[in-house]
Amino acid sequence: GTQRPRVVLDLQGIVAVLKPPHWEVDARAGGSPHPTSELGAPLLSSFLRWIYPAEQHPLVHCNEQQFGIIHRLDTPSSGLILAGKDFVGYYTLRWQQDTYELGREYIVLCRGRMPWGPRVVNAKIKTSKTEPLLSRISDEGKPAWTLVDPLCVLLRENGEEYSLVTIMIRTGRTHQIRVHMKHIGHPTVTDGKYTDQVTFESDRAWCPRNFLHRHRLTFQDTEAVLREAVAALPEDLAAVLRELRPAADGRSA
Questions:
Q1: Is 220 helix (H, G, I), strand (E, B) or coil?
Q2: pLDDT tens, 27-60?
Q3: Does residue 95 contact residue 104 with C-beta atoms inside 8 Å?
Q4: Residue 115 burial (10 A CB sphere; 0-12, 13-18, 19+)
Q5: No. of helices (H) and no. of strands (E), the chain
Q6: CA 196 from chain center: how many Å?
Q7: How far apart are CA 237 and CA 239, in angstroms?
Q8: Which of 11, 76, 154, 251 would you label with 107, given CA atoms 20 to 30 Å apart?
Q9: Mean pLDDT for the chain?
Q10: Measured distance CA(126)–CA(49) in Å, rounded
Q11: According to the model, what pLDDT value does residue 253 have?
Q12: What is the mean pLDDT of residues 231-247?
C-alpha cells in the first residue's frame, strides 16, 4: 500500500511533514480540491486538511495560499516539506525562502564518478509554462544555485560507478537538482524526465524511483528560534544502497 505522510515537527503556526514517494505536493494556487491528482497520486494538501480542521486552521484549507505549503518536491521524490498552519507561520517561512535563509539539504545518488570536493552549480534555469513542466539550462532562465558535495563512489556488480552526494540549494527552481546534475554530466538515478528512455529503464531495474530525498531542513520558527527537521533515508532507497559496494578508491566522508 501507499505510505502515509508523517508530521516530523509540529510548531506554533508551522509544520514539517515527511512526504513519502509518489505523493504530489499540490502547492500551486488554484490547486485541486480532490484527494488525488489528475494522474491519481495522493495529494499532500489532503493529508494536511485531514489533520488540521478548517475551524482552527483555515489557511490549510485555502488553495489561493497553496494550502500553506511553501515549496515543492517532485512526485517520485521523498522528503521534508514545510507548511504554515496560519498566516504568521506561512509568511515567516516565505520570508526565509525568498531571502535564501531556508536551509534545504538532500541525499542524491547520481550516475558516474564525481570529482572529489564541493562544487557549486549556478547555471540559470528556464521552465516551460505548459504541462508537462520541463526545465532546461538557458541564459534566459532564472538564477539557480546548487552546492554538490560528494560523499563516496559506489559500484554495481557490473562495475558501473555512481556517486552518493549531499546537495544544498538556495533557489528552488522546478526540477533544479535534476537539471543541474544532468548539466554537469551526472544525472540522478532513475530520472524519467531528464535521462533517455534506455538509461531510465536500466536504472529502474535496480532502483525503483528517482533517488532524491530531502533529509534536512533548517529554519527559524515564529519566535525566531532556529529549528531543524530531519528525516532518515527511506527504506526503499536504503535497500538500493545495500546492493552497491564502495569503490576501492572511492573516498567516503
A1: strand
A2: 554 444 555 555 568 899 999 999 999 999 999 9
A3: no
A4: exposed
A5: 5, 12
A6: 21
A7: 5
A8: 11
A9: 90
A10: 32
A11: 45
A12: 95
Residue 16 CB neighbours (<10 A): 21
Strands in the chain per DSSP E: 6-11, 14-19, 78-84, 103-111, 119-121, 125-127, 135-137, 146-155, 161-169, 212-220, 226-230, 245-246
CA distance readout (Å), 154 to 95, 185, 235, 249, 253: 39, 17, 18, 10, 13
The Cα 74–Cα 23 span in angstroms is: 9
Domains contained in the chain, CATH given: 1-99 (3.30.2350.10), 103-252 (3.30.2350.10)
Which residues, other chains included, contact 83 with Cβ-Cβ below 8 Å and sequence gap of 6+?
A: 14, 15, 17, 48, 60, 67, 68, 69, 70, 90, 93
Identify the three-state secondary structure at position 21: coil
